[in-house]
Amino acid sequence: MTEKEFLASYDPDKYKKPSVTADILIFTINKSSELELLLIKRKEHPFKDKWAIPGGFVGISESVEDAAKRELLEETGIEQGYLEQLYTFSKVDRDPRMRIISVAHFALVPWQLLNFKAGDDAADAKLFKIKMENWELALVAKDGTTLHEKDLTFDHKDIVLMGLKRLSGKLDYSNIAFELLQNKECFTIFELKQIYDAIKGKTSDLGNFRRMFKSRYVSESHVEEINQMSDEFSKKKAQCYRYIG
Amino acid sequence: MTEKEFLASYDPDKYKKPSVTADILIFTINKSSELELLLIKRKEHPFKDKWAIPGGFVGISESVEDAAKRELLEETGIEQGYLEQLYTFSKVDRDPRMRIISVAHFALVPWQLLNFKAGDDAADAKLFKIKMENWELALVAKDGTTLHEKDLTFDHKDIVLMGLKRLSGKLDYSNIAFELLQNKECFTIFELKQIYDAIKGKTSDLGNFRRMFKSRYVSESHVEEINQMSDEFSKKKAQCYRYIG
DNA sequence: GCAAAAGTGTTCTAGCTACACCCATGC
DNA sequence: GCATGGGTGTAGCTAGAACACTTTTGC
Questions:
Q1: Which chain A residues are within 8 Å of B87, Cβ to Cβ?
Q2: Which residues, in sequence order, are CB contacts of B220 under 8 Å at separation 6+?
Q3: Does B165 touch chain A (CB under 8 A)?
Q4: Which of A73, A152, B115, B121 has the most CB within a 10 Å radius?
């Protein structure tokens, strides 16, 4: 039997298959420099009317990344933003409908680009501030809607926690923080520090942050000074920078 | 329609689904303290008689982790060893048979436990030393069989490279190196250094490594001195340690 | 004047690097 | 005696943390 014959006679549906979804944690930093996560209220069973991470099935002729991108677009109207694969969750009973494997992702989106609306599968969509209270996750929307970690459906609590850990960890050895800037072409050191603080969940020393910024980003040419000053975040004019890569 | 009714009427096979496999990079350190990777020679189409990473389909009622564990057992006879999920690869055309999404893993196995034989799907199985030549991956078996990175089937080159990068990176902030020790209950500092050097691909200063070992592992109680000396790796007797966790 | 950010300087520590040096021992 | 690992010591560099200080400016 040649390879060609083999392929022609191969039956892809011989065995029962799990379904695969791409789920996305959509993070943003709001105007008050707080970390927020987009959740949707489910319109359909299972867990109708509960809050969950957006996601959708991976089609037969698209990659998982494409499915995640599509989902991000549907949910937020964003054509391209930072998107990274997080982890694949596959507990057998994680979905009551049937066997579903979820490839979780996270996206970083500047708040002013976020134009979300309830999608096809969502009765509602909201941004929730992320807090840690008594070592447990708490999610609070602007209108006061409060979710405890146990209120998250499926295994979404695990996904959110892993996402937060990864995000916080990557601040130290990558350039992802820049993805949350309002404007990568013109920003101040303080603005970036706000993003760091929001993700790390603590306020760092401004003087030290400046030095870190200069040695790690300016000296290494990830960023350059531009001929522009800003007083958006302070009374005194501040030097603006441009993100290069 | 209640949730119960919804679930009862739900058809899991409404849409075409991709297949999912768990593939696994099985790393070991050989007697000469070199990093090796287990590859199998494919017995079936596609890519019959080519070398590939072991892997298998994820069944409808097992998690991806379970499938990877099962694969590790089948391929190496190892009941439990270090296993970690690496990344999910999903390019649409990565497998000529059909749409297959691969959740790649890596396993760390001490060489003396490695009792591999060709499994059901393999005509042969071999350990390959990992080298970088001209910035490209080269794999060399003890019998001289040499593979270039382009000889790896599917997208296995990408998987191997990502695995190596992750492995090397995790040495700096985790305890995975201990998983490759012949005996976690009794080992010398030199033995651990050999593992580090093999993975990093360079020899580090022994004196400095000792100090790092003591401040990072002994002082932090990941490891403890035991009442035993070894001369397996040197003429002079060396202090033995025990890995705690 | 006060608060808050812009920006600089200082001091201390911890960790890593590159060494140089001892000891023990098998060949 | 020489190579090799076991083991310690030292000096230098760097990044980070903690903190003090000066400047600008809107309120």
A1: 85
A2: none
A3: no
A4: A152
DSSP SS3 for A176? helix
Looking up tokens 């050999």, which residue turns up?
Answer: B194
Buried b (16+ CB within 10 A) or exposed e, B83-105: bbbbbbbbbbebbbbebbbbbbb
Of all helices (H) and strands (E), which one includes residue B89? strand B82-89
Cβ atoms of A77 and A96 closer than 8 Å: no
Question: What are the Cα distances from residue A41, in Å, to A57, A123, A148, A159?
Answer: 17, 5, 15, 17
Closest chain B C-alpha to A38 CA, distance in angstroms: 24
Identity at A94, one-letter amino acid code: R
Q: Which nucleotides of D are covered by protein (CB under 7 A)?
A: 3-10, 15-21, 23-26
CB contact (8 A) between residue A101 and residue B58: yes
Nearest to A186 by CA among A197, A195, A178: A178
The share of chain A scoring above pLDDT 90, in percent, equals: 81
* Strand partners for B41: B51, B124
Are the beta carbons of B103 and A87 separated by less than 8 Å? no
Round to a whole number and report the distance in Å from the CA of B216 to the C1' of C17: 17
> Which window residues (149-208, chain A) lie with Cβ within 7 Å of strand D?
204-205, 207-208
- The reply to whether the CB atom of residue B239 sits less than 7 A from any atom in nucleic acid chain D is yes
* Whether the predicted pLDDT of A120 surpasses 70: no
Query: CA B184, C1' D11: Å apart?
Result: 35
Does residue B126 register a pLDDT over 70? yes
Angle subtended at Cα A173 by Cα A171 and Cα A177, rounded to the nearest 5 degrees: 30
Candidates B35, B19, B13; CA nearest to B103 is B19
Asked if A6's CB is within 8 angstroms of B58's CB, the reply is: no
The pLDDT of residue B121 is above 90: no
**DSSP H helical ranges for chain B:** 3-9, 64-76, 156-171, 189-200, 206-213
Q: How far is the CA of A202 from the C1' of C3 (A)?
A: 21
CA-wise closest residue to A51 among A123, A144, A103: A123
